[in-house]
Write a structure and sequence with these properties.
This protein is an alpha/beta fold. The protein has 13 helices and 14 strands. The strands form three sheets. The chain has a seven-stranded mixed beta sheet, sandwiched between helices. The longest helix is centred in the first third of the chain and has 15 residues. The radius of gyration is 20 Å and the shape is globular. The N and C termini lie far apart (about 65 Å).
Length: about 350
């Protein structure tokens, strides 16, 4: 018997999320989208473009400019058996809803001894690189990875964007779904029909590029930068294994440990600052688990511990190819230079 043809389309990351939302809305009439300007406008990034026209204003709801209200409404909907999908318009706007997320959404299942589920998906465009104003380029993911009861994922490519938004909506757990806004226009082939069944688990990391000398771990917007760094290093005879973390909570340590045991070195890159960041937690955990395999202490390449800078300065703040390659050199013992982070910038 011949296999059914696979529906594959070349989509941007933003359009892949749109396709995933559309499929979820079609498949389950309990899926409801909530957010500021997501209906008539289609969202500030047009991620929800056309969905209100297709499914109506009762399924794709333009909300007031009140993140606390959006999440409070989502909690009530989840109580009534719905699967709300909330859009936080920009990363820095999530803080008014922080109490609802960490005190209610994350804890109601545990508080009710399993009687209440909170199948809420919270979409958060995050990260810099778009020349935006204050509160539009932040990376708040570590606040939520610290909170038990939340799943936290970050997508880096169109295929994952499609599959993981569907996985997140289908999950009975609340999910923080971080979208790298400067990668919204990145294009790639996306398998649609059958993609969910064939997709990797939402909590799994992925080896993007195999290597033997250094493990380079990234997520969201920096996965592409890490891949570019691996290609550049290969020209210099350095073999970098790139891992896309994908799930920030829980972390797939099995994949990371297996890589570090092969390479003996670990570099972790993310846009968020170093202090209290995910990179520090992963570095500590890998050191505990793989100490006898490590040839060098894990190296972090991160944003600086300052408020996100004005757009003209963000090129100096966001880790780029050169800073990541410098981190690789330090892990290999080829450079003794201090990064701006270690120098106390």
């Amino acid at each position: 018997m011949l296999d059914a043809p696979v529906d594959t389309q070349t989509l941007t990351l933003a359009n892949a999320i749109n396709a995933g939302l559309r499929r979820a809305l079609r498949d389950d009439d309990k899926v409801v989208l909530l957010g500021e300007d997501i209906g008539t406008l289609g969202g500030v990034y047009r991620v929800t473009d056309g969905l209100q026209r297709e499914f109506g204003a009762r399924r794709v709801v333009d909300t007031p400019l009140a993140e606390a209200g959006i999440l409070g409404t989502a909690v009530g909907l989840a109580y009534r058996g719905y699967r709300p999908v909330c859009e936080i318009q920009f990363d820095g706007f999530i803080y008014p809803a922080f109490d609802q997320i960490v005190a209610q959404v994350a804890k109601l299942h545990y508080r009710t001894q399993g009687a209440v589920r909170m199948p809420i998906t919270i979409r958060v465009p995050f990260g810099g690189g778009i020349g935006a104003a204050e509160h539009h380029s932040e990376s708040p993911e570590a606040y939520f990875t610290h909170t038990s009861g939340l799943r936290v994922v970050a997508v880096s490519n169109p295929q994952d964007a499609y599959a993981m938004i569907r996985q997140a909506i289908a999950s009975d757990d609340p999910v923080l779904y971080f979208e790298p806004k400067r990668r919204y226009h990145q294009k790639a082939p996306v398998e649609l029909d059958g993609a969910l069944a064939a997709a990797e688990p939402m909590g799994a990391a992925r080896v993007v590029a195999p290597g033997t000398d250094v493990t380079l771990l990234a997520y969201g917007p920096l996965v592409q930068t890490a891949t570019d760094a691996a290609r550049a290093a290969a020209a210099d005879g350095i073999s970098i294994e790139v891992i896309d973390l994908r799930s920030l909570a829980p972390v797939d340590y099995a994949t990371i440990e297996a890589s570090v045991r092969r390479t003996g070195r670990l570099v972790i890159a993310h846009e968020a600052g170093s202090q209290g960041g995910i990179g520090g937690e992963i570095a500590a955990s890998v050191t505990e688990r793989c100490f006898s395999y490590l040839e060098h202490a894990p190296v972090r390449v991160t944003g600086f511990d300052v408020p996100y800078p004005p757009s003209r300065l963000e090129v100096h703040h966001v880790p780029d190819l050169d800073r990541i390659l410098d981190g690789v050199d330090r892990a290999l013992g080829r450079s003794n230079s201090l990064s701006g982070l270690e120098a106390g910038w």
